[in-house]
Design goal:
The chain is of the alpha/beta class and about 210 residues long. The protein has helices at about 40-45, 45-55, 75-85, 115-120, 140-150, 195; strands at about 5-10, 15-25, 30-35, 65-70, 100, 105, 110-115, 125-135, 155-160, 165, 170-175, 185-190, 205, 210. The termini are close together. About 35% of the residues are buried. The chain is globular. A hairpin with a 5-residue loop joins strand 6 and strand 7. Helix 2 crosses helix 3 (about 75-85).
Length: about 210
Amino acid sequence: MEGRSIKIYAPDSKKVSLKVIPGHFATSHSHINLYIDLTSTKSRLSEAMEAAHVLSKQYVNSVVIDTIVCLDNCEVIGGFLAKELTDAGIMSLNAHKTMYIISPEYNTNGQMIFRDCNQGAIYNKNILLLVASVTTGDTLRRSLECIRYYGGRVNGISAIFSAVEDVENTKVNSIFRKKDLPDYQSYKISECPLCKTGLKLDAIVNGYGYMRL
């Protein structure tokens, strides 16, 4: 599968790239024809730092951000993003005048939760939600609902790749957009044309990686 991967560089920085693998893949909400491998971007120091630098430029210093909530193993990028935003003059209203970087857990029903020890970083705080990739926006909608439940206010959404422009009237700021992957398609599971032709799934994918079938 990796043998057919293609590397695509970010429009705003040649130091950030995607490894795209064509095929037939299942996410939790859809089927897609391109798997976007973000492993290096999330785990390699130089790429994570540059990704944070590019994302930080999409925010003006009038925005208030107290906490960055990281999904999909984006904590390394989240740490660098907090530093970039702070250096750019983004304010935090936390008592210690610095940003929190936290990640949620998921219960046995797949619901996002925050432990008691982390709820103070959410309640009455201004949140930036950081995700690896957005296909349909369903995961983001569930995340927004969860953050509101715990009393947080989402002031921004950032993604490495996003196929959608906004979710619930909140703009999704991203390094890569669907126009950068013109062949990218996302289908409702019940309407997937690849399934209708009898093409078997290559893998189940999510923000953490893929599992071959």
